[in-house]
């Protein structure tokens, strides 16, 4: 149960997929709503992560440490690239009728917060697990009085 939050996050992937395709609410990867092929690839990747944490529960933090930055990168690029594209197309940004390229929907913000929270949680747990493994052989044995 030590890595239960990342594990539950990935095991809930089918629920996120059903919520997205049946309910129309995309909170897992909201930025890819306009690119269904990439969205399906990402969901397949998340299913692989869920399979990994199911069969290797002790590696849940490591899986989350790998997947969450991918999700964050997708989310950040999805936020920045439309602005870059809009700026590249404008002749003069100051005189153009410029409007935001992407509205920050509640689903997008939820996705970003969820991915960032899991990434931070997984990083801290993976760092703790790795530091415990590296320190274990070098610690002197404790003496009991």
Mean pLDDT: 77
What percentage of amino acids are in beta strands?
A: under 5%
What's the order of the H and E elements? HHHHH
Shape: globular
Distance between the termini: 33 Å
Integer count of domains: 1
The helix/strand class is: mainly alpha
Radius of gyration: 20 Å
Number of helices: 5
Determine the fraction of residues in helical runs and give it as a percent range.
55-70%
Low-confidence stretches: none
Biggest sheet layout: none
What's the number of extended β-strand segments? 0
Give a written overview of the molecule.
There is one protein chain. With 145 residues, the chain is mainly alpha-helical. The chain has one domain. Helix content is 67%, strand content 0%. The chain has helices at residues 4-11, 13-21, 36-55, 60-89, 106-135.
List the helices and strands and how they pair.
Blueprint: H1 4-11, H2 13-21, H3 36-55, H4 60-89, H5 106-135
Offer a concise description of the structure.
The protein has 145 residues and is an all-alpha fold.
Distinctive features:
145 residues; 0% strand
